[in-house]
Specification:
The structure is a single chain. The longest helix has 37 residues. This protein is 79% helix and 4% strand. The radius of gyration is 18 Å and the shape is globular. It has a two-stranded antiparallel ribbon with strand order 1-2. It has one domain. Helix 2 runs parallel beside helix 8, helix 3 runs antiparallel to helix 4 and helix 6 packs antiparallel against helix 7.
């Protein structure tokens, strides 16, 4: 049995649905990645890339084509984010900040346009039975990943929104373990939101004190 065949083989059955080894690996690497992001640990990026590679195969087999293609984009964004975090560590640490109104304007605009375009593409060019939800979660995830790379604390709010959609979507696709993983992601996202929001508030407080001197 080759590696690809082994990854696609059933590891165990949960709630009546078969769970493949690739889903198990995706579960483990995904959980570790989100935990490390919340801790602002730079190792989240290479582990996240490993998670993306496993999910490419998983989502193709599940018919979630946009989510599968999204993993390729994730890898490119992860390399960019990895560079930003390492460069910030070598110079002065990159600070957690809020998203500006201008950034929100472009993010929301890009999200709306992206959702419409991806939905249309999936409906016309693939056999996807959930083109809109697949497209929406894809654009939300891209927005959140951008915010993560730039250390915008609101990125966690976008992740939470995406995960609330992902959980029923994966249950619908019989990806039970992945759905459970995303429930765990919700808890980790709340932890990350609190930690990054606290850091952002402390930085803003320090800036006020410096200005008052």
């Amino acid at each position: 049995m080759g590696v690809i065949d082994w990854l696609g083989s059933t590891a165990f059955t949960s709630f009546g649905a078969p769970t493949s080894w690739v889903e198990v690996i995706g579960f483990a690497t995904g959980a570790v990645c989100v935990y490390l992001v919340a801790r602002q640990n730079v190792w989240n990026w290479p582990i996240g890339i490993a998670n993306n590679v496993t999910f490419i195969l998983l989502f193709i087999t599940a018919g979630l084509y946009a989510d599968s293609a999204l993993q390729v984009v994730y890898i490119a964004l992860a390399l960019w984010g990895w560079y930003l975090w390492v460069a910030g560590r070598d110079a002065s640490p990159s600070a957690v900040t809020g998203t500006s109104r201008r950034e929100w304007f472009w993010l929301i605009g890009a999200g709306v346009v992206g959702t419409i375009l991806i939905t249309t593409l999936l409906a016309l060019a693939t056999e996807s039975v959930v083109p809109f939800w697949d497209a929406l979660t894809t654009t939300l995830s891209l927005m959140a990943t951008w915010g993560q790379a730039k250390k915008r604390w609101e990125s966690w709010l976008v992740w939470i929104t995406a995960d609330l959609i992902y959980v029923p979507l994966y249950l619908y696709k019989d990806l039970v373990l992945t759905a459970i993983l995303y429930v765990g992601f919700l808890a980790l996202c709340v932890m990350g939101l609190r930690a990054w929001r606290r850091d952002s508030a402390e930085i803003a407080h320090d800036a006020v004190l410096v200005a008052q001197r």
